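_Per-residue structure_
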Amino acid sequence: MSKNYVASTFLKLQDSQVYTIFAWSQKEPEIVPAKSWLTVLEIFVHEHSIPQAYAIFQEIKLASIIEKVTTELEPYQALLQDALVLLSDGNLTIFGKGFRSFIEKDMQFELGTLSRETFQVLLHLFAQAQLVDDLEEIDDLEKFSNLVDELESRGLLSPAPGSIDWGDLKKTVPICQAFGLTRGTPVDRYYLSKFISEIRPQVTGQVLEIGGTPKDKDFYELAPGTSYKVMNLEAGLGVDILGDVHDSSIVDSDSFDSIIIFNVLEHCYAPWIAVENIYKWLKPGGKCFAMVPSSIRIHATPKDYWRPLPDAFAWMFRNFSKQKMYVYGNPTTVIASYHGIAVEELTTEELDAFHPDYPVATCIMVEK
């Protein structure tokens, strides 16, 4: 069955460029480079089928602007420096106050009817923008479909309402209840391995791992000559320091060159206290390497309190002289992580793609 699409984005005019804005997102706005992009997006506000959308595109791409469009859009030109234009299913809406209009329902101007009649609203609204005139170049269905694929990959087109293929994901129980271990490697382990490969050369001297096990040292492949100790809540073979990371008295100040704390802070009732203690325990110039899962099922061992996100991590480690954040994940891997879909079931491209609004693993390297 052929795929159906709908336009789904906000547009903004700024400095003679049209930008697509990702709502309330950390993702940077992206330039809309060409007239074909605007034309195709406007068509998919109303028409969801690629063949029918292409037929409309061929009819209108070389047509002159209809006088009715010029007349009806004239009052809105003065708003464009502050406004956003929303494209959604059947709607082309100007929000005169930007996102405030979206929330407060004020200064909203609906142009969907005019757009449906003419498919010329966007090209006229943004007539003064710097846009490549490439409409004649899209002269067959393959080129048109390739452009549709490009717009979908950038998040400007989405599956039309009612056409999403849930497949095996439409379940009220996870695909694997053990993070993906029954199928292969959990997604967060992939990102932890990437982080370790980045920071490995810096983990030196006297090393303390909080919440680890002695076998982790081999997994980390630490440099020869490092001294490695383990702190844990429970006694066990190879546990050197028995105690709670919230208790600053269990380790002397200025004791370690490196402290590792992976997949632990989410289990701390007050992770900011744990971080304060880590600061005390590090020698001047010492470094801490931390990782928390940002998108993963609850795993109460013994308790599961938090999902610290990048802003929280930056705040908790704010007293360190240097910090560098490493954030991994995207919508696909968030779903995979929650469902227990394994690394081996995803491509490297799917795993390594990054979207700042969808972290799976948040990591940081800091220096005292």
Remarks:
- The mean pLDDT is 94.
- The radius of gyration is 26 Å.
- The CA atoms of residues 46 and 116 lie 7 Å apart.
- The chain has two domains: 5-165, 187-367.
